[in-house]
Amino acid sequence: MTAKIKQIEADGVTISIVNYDSEDYMSLTDMIKAKDGDFFISDWLRNANTLDYIAAWETMNNPNFNYGEFAIIRQSAGANSFKISVKELLSKTNIKCLTAKAGRYGGTYAHKDIAFNFGMWISPIFQLYIVKEYQRLKEIETDQHNLEWDVKRVLSKVNYHIHTDAVKNHIIPKSKYSTDKQWIEYAEEADLLNVALFGCTAKQWKESNPKLSLEGSNMRDFASINELAVLSNLESLNSELIKSGVEKRIRFNNMHRIARQQLEILNKMDVLKSIKKQSDSTYIDEKKKLE
């Protein structure tokens, strides 16, 4: 698991969260610190209700779940001598709701559905803290996503008209195409920027992504904020070079070089962090002020 680590704090306990296969997994190793006394994750797994819950989740979410082997393990639940580790459960039943991570944030991680159940085993109040803080994290992430979408929308429009006006006023009058085909000039200039920045034309992207193309998407919809910032700069630059009558080949070479240079600089920055306040609770707090 090589995902970015996120963290929440529930009742004074810091809990790491990783995204694995597009799902959030919480650290049970962190969570068990909230339980008084010497308890281990294997103690939770001895519980028949725990195993039933895991089996239900796996049946719903994991087509490769080895229910037969799991049923054999379940029969032993409740016996004083019964004990099973996460590692054994993983190897014998191919469950995917639990996993292990090595390294700095190592330990046992569980899918959020299972982690909430584990929180209840620790204590009902602790489980409620976890649910509340997790919901808060998701709300913050949603606000950040919406902010990123707004920024990308603005950036994609910043210099678009400047660029198309340069084509209209300085290329169209000299166009080799008939009036009904002069749109090709606009497409060729747009692709000059696409190739300089993204390395392919709009047509090549559509051919490589037919499903997305049919849905009305294009390569710029999937560009990062940094790429759109550079694209905006290239549109402005290309419009000035067009006005100056610079040959297309020379314009492309300059823009390709500049695109690489600017991306290298911007990729070292966190553009969103420079736009939003430093507090991760900014968006929620602002909403509450309006209520």
From TrEMBL:
The keyword DNA-binding applies. InterPro entries: KilA/APSES_HTH (IPR018004), KilA_N (IPR017880). Keywords: DNA-binding. Residues 4-137 form the KilA-N domain. One of its GO terms (molecular function) is DNA binding. This is DNA-binding protein. It comes from Urechidicola croceus.
